[in-house]
């Protein structure tokens, strides 16, 4: 089990309640082990971060990024975050909100490809 900062638990609950439209769309397709029986958690605290989606069986983190991630500062923060998660042996893949909303099947195909690679 991955450790996390205890104060993040309350924030993660709030984030689960207040998901973006893109997160809702992706969650609808990942929940209830719909992806080949693989369990998926949403807004999962890991270390000092809360990741959007986590598939523990294959150690995969799926991030759905809003426009703030497209800035230079947002990209720098994401690099540090990704490096930390990868240091734990996790694979991180990122999609932006637009991709999830307009190209949902392509996003799910990319997640499926990672599932196949990591099993």
Count of DSSP strands: 4
> Biggest sheet, in brief?
4 strands, mixed
Number of domains as seen in the coordinates: 1
Q: Could you state the order of secondary-structure elements as H and E?
A: HHEEEHEHH
Radius of gyration, rounded?
14 Å
- Can you name the CATH architecture? 3-Layer(aba) Sandwich
Instruction: Please report the distance between the alpha carbons of the first and last residues.
Output: 18 Å
Q: What fraction of residues sit in β-strands?
A: 15-25%
Question: Which shape, going by the Cα principal axes?
Answer: globular
**Overall average pLDDT:** 95
CATH domain topology: Endonuclease, Chain A
CATH superfamily: VSR Endonuclease
Order of strands across the biggest sheet? 1-2-3-4
Low-confidence stretches: none
What is the helix tally?
5
**Level-1 CATH class name:** Alpha Beta
Helix content: 40-55%
Q: How does the helix and strand content classify structurally?
A: alpha+beta
